Amino acid sequence: MCPGEKVRDAYISFFVEKKGHEFVQSSPVVPLSDSTLLFANAGMNQFKPIFLGQLEPNSPLQGVTRAANSQKCIRAGGKHNDLDDVGKDVYHHTFFEMLGNWSFGDYFKGEAIDWAWELLTEVYGLNPERLYASYFGGDEELGLPEDVEAKELWLRHLPSDRVLPFGKKDNFWEMGATGPCGPCSELHYDRVGGRDAAKLVNADDPDVIEIWNLVFMQFFRGDDGRLSELPNRHIDTGMGLERVTSVLQDMRSNYDTDIFGPLLAAVNDLVGGEPYKGKVGADDIDMRDTAYRIVVDHARTLTMAVADGATPSSEGRGYVLRRILRRAVRYGRSKLNAPPGFFSKLVPQVVESLSPGFPDLSTAGERVQSILEEEEVAFDRTVDRGMQFFDSLKAELETEGADMVPGDKAFLLYDSHGFPLDLTEQMALEAGLSVDVAGFECALAFSAKSCQLQFQWDGTDAFEVKLAKEIQLHSAPLRFFANGAWHSSGPNGTLTQRSSRLYFESDELGEFTCINITWSAQNLVVHTSAKVYKNSCAIIFVQEVPDGATNTNASNPKMPKDGNELEEGAYPPILSFPSFSMSNLLRELGFLTWKGVFAKAVFGKDVAGTLAGLSSNGPVVLFDRELALVVSPLDNFKTAVHTYSAGAWETGVTSELTSLPVGFVHRTLITAEVGITQAIGSYGQIVQKLYGLQRGLLQSDPVVNYLSYWTDNGAYYYGDQWHEAGGGGQTCNEASMIEVARGLERENLLDAVRIWQLDDWWYPGHKAVFVHCVQNWTLVPPAFNRSLAELSRTVGKPWLLYVPFFCPENVYTQQFKFLQGSHGITQFAVPEPNNALAFYRMLFDYGMKNGMTGFEHDFLNFNFLAVPNFRKAFDASRRWLQAMHQAALERVVPIQFCMALPSDLMASLELQAVTNYRASDDYATTDNYDIGASSLLGFALQLRPSKDSLWTRRPADAAASGRPWGPHQNPGANCELNVIIATLSTGPVILADKAGETNTTLVWRSARADGWILQPDKPATSIDATFTSILSRDANLTFHGHVWSTYALVEAKQNDELMWHYLLSIDVNTSWQLTESDFFPRLNSRVGWVGRRWHQSHWPTPCVHGQPAVSSGCLLGPTISSQEDLPKLLNDRPIMVANDTHKFDLLQLSPVLENGWVLLGEVGKYVSVSRKRFIQVSTMRGGMRVELQGVPKEETRIVALQPRTSDKTEWTIIERLVRFEHSTTVIDFTAHAGTLPEKSEKASPTVAGEWVSLV
After folding, report:
1. I want to staple 531 with a disulfide (CB 3.0 to 4.6 A). Which of 512, 562, 683, 775 is the partner?
2. CA pair distance 905, 504, nearest whole angstrom
């Protein structure tokens, strides 16, 4: 008999030693970096970034082309859920090992099939006569023929009657709704043998089982559902260890193998009585063997999940684990007569059985057992009473002749005894009963809510949304424009309520109560619904027009066919739901929203005057001094509107649309939280979850991760086509680009600048008043003599290529259709949505052949508001954006949005390739730096805000030459402030300096030696006080200036993370007392922090090795351990250089570790602690260990603080020089000899008194 351990070893040895694969350790079963998964459920999970082209530059998987391993998998909860089947049969498991081998653009079908056959028949020694192969038989709907290649490859090993075709259900594999996919081929084994078992393949016969699946990834499914060929083809195979071991050991049950035998024996040792006998179904009369299988399976699952960082809890994957544990305990106690606390005692046996394959498990046993024991004890307190309650309820139902457990009784088991609904359903099933699930959900929905958001409905069209006492939204009448007329609800209205119903369901956000009303007017039918969520603190309003509607254009019927209109248009929605009456209470609330080009933030009091249609149709935040409520469209983003009309705040889609399609649906979300930033963060989590958002190209996009050079603004040292009279001025040319590259090389920056944006070179030099359109995406002589590809090779950089819009007559109009638009005399064209995918595929293929690795679309406001078709045709603008996105995603080309409207950012929830957007105006404008409030929307949508390109030094000849932008614009001002803002934005740091005039000191404060930007983990965003202070009647409490907050996370031990906070204050000319709520996440001052100011005068604050940290001025003072210890802000130091116009300070708060040590971080960096430099920080006896990453031969200095006093009032500065020999290194900071005195001998002179300023 071949032991399971040897089955695993033989597999890995075969592929690693004989077939040249790299062994890649199993990823944790808890996928902390993949929000789409509860648990790792397949071997390919950790390789998704390779398949999707999203691999981070420093990933250990870089360069891997062949891999093999045994992956830990859990299938419980989510799409793949085997929990309910475990125990009922002998082959389902919630935890299992997946043996797999992968090829990433290396070998393909031939090798995969031949090696699978070799392993099974020659290494494992399986009888070839019992093997059957299935392959993809083609599918007309997919437009794919039979996989003849796979078929012919199998016919080299098997006769034709054992090579079987199947459809897409069985033999076409897809990662998700979009992404890589392809046909697959499965190997099936007949346990019986000596017969023709072809008809039993894929027929759920327990004796003819699938043992191996070979997936041939060769296609990409786009957003439109169409398949295209992948540029690189991959292999992904998976074979369950437990199942193949049962075949090799000739066991009909996985539980009869040596993988489970010792664990089953351990259960019997704990519970006594009859040992496991393998009975199933009707033969297992007392369900004793079912309980054995459930207990051992769940013990493996919980041990591995907890070891990898998960913990049983009341939410998410934690709740799945809690359900699993309680299911196992209930079966053990009721069916095996197990003693209390038996389950956690199985952990040592699980560790012993699994640690040979996963060595890390051997050190986690005690911690896992302790956590499970605590959870088991908590359930033990109620499980007996719960089972007694159920037994008495069962007897009562039998007496009454009833066969259903009432919903309120099921809720009582859940609420009082901790029995999840599925556990009650299982108990009821065993007793021959069912459960009133709807009644349970009703009781659950109207039990105590988890947030302060309340919804009240009177059974008609009236409802109220309340957040505490201050924030209340009262419904206004429903209005609907169709068939050329308005219809409304109410006593005299023509919209009549036909029916209403209340029901209970669940979706991605959890369980909800839904109130649905059907309305009619003439021959029109509409539905309005409100879904009130129990645990998500959310209400989703839904409007539906099932039969569609025509003649819906109530607002702008005379808009000229050629456009010429950029007005945002306060056009009311076609169907206004929800709509709210503008009460005096509502007018007194503060509001925050985003409006117009660059999605700029707008805030104030009385939201009515700001509800302005198509250019301000993103989220609206209402707030008082403590709470905040967010109202936002959830779909149809390009045509969604908030308007103030008919005395009400109305939401829906714009009545500029001429019709609504059949099946029209529009949703609006309301959610709430304590604090504005927290509410926006929670809002972002909800919409990201609903859209399954993953910014797939974010980690690999060089624009947002590395230094870049942009000819946008940089070009104006050499040419100026926009501001010369009438346009048509001097063009930026080839020579100037090469001059810039040589300048960067002289300054040792060329290698660090990873990508080059090309802007002005598109413009062919013809006259235009505002901006030039694109006639042909090629370089134009005489300014350029090299091709785009040649120029890329000359400067040594790939391109971020740019389009503002296309000319009405361009070289592509003969091949593709375009829509026309105009604003004033600016005429332009946009690819027609049905032609757009083919057009952008052509365009991007050309770009990639010539060095393009990124794409920027500018003037998105023009490309919507000034295109009549996009404003009148439902979904047209969305389909145009999706076509552009699909072409980019297929080619792994990241997209930047420029001059975007809020609706463009919202639409990017469906556009995974969009990584960043311009959040600032052009560089020379006076408020160009101000992106803190606008970045809040990017934070919610996982988009990186982009500060426009910047100059790091004012050129010596700028005033005389008038370049860039002319002397009156004060070019080159606030250089350091702009570098800091760009760094803290998490977006691009964009250089645009004249050749040879870059201030390298400022540049290197933002990046590593390879140009990787040392960023925080969140865009720096305005603190809540920026907005809430407008509600104050006390002038002393009104906020002046700007304060932006962000943070950086670094891993600590045991899956924990440490946080460093950063605050940037600008023009704070009146002292402002910081509070815990000024930080996000809210600062817990009791943890203990130290504060450090970046500047003293014009230079970085000195922290000198061996000096005392507080008294030398390195720190602002001793430990911050309460809110009262937080400093006051006041930007009172001199401006940095003569032409600066703003005063600013950068403040860092570093956590005091449990042993008193502090990591201040990297010397001379704005974000001195960033996860792009620091991998892990951990305490050690008498010191601190720090793991870093960098570039071989790079040098940097790291500063830590050693505690000098036990009361944490003074530290000694320890500085270490780090030289990287490899890409990672570890340094230890250790204490000096001797003990720590109880108190410092000298009190710091900066401690006494109040911190009025940060100097």
Report:
1. 512
2. 32
